[in-house]
Amino acid sequence: MSYPAIVYTRADVENKHADDSVYDQTIKYKVIIIDKNPDSSIVERMLTFKYAIFDRHYAVNGLNHDMFTVSYKIVPCFTGQISKNIPIHK
Description:
By secondary structure, this protein is mainly β. It has one domain. It contains 1 helix and 5 strands, in the order ββαβββ. The protein has one helix at residues 41-46, and strands at residues 5-18, 21-35, 52-60, 63-76, 82-87. 3% of the residues are buried.
């Protein structure tokens, strides 16, 4: 892997149900920015995102890791199709 790098994984999917179907869904991702520079411009940029929450910073083997949670909401329509994505902040 070369640095700086961005690593992300899906962390959670929260479904709300009614009438045997999903009416609301929130998807959360964990995003880790890995950089040799402790004052990474990528981290500074991520801090400006409305739907990104800074979780923590740690250093391992001379690499700085900054972890964020990014959430967005999917609103299914009544036909079961996804109508639009709406970022959220929880």
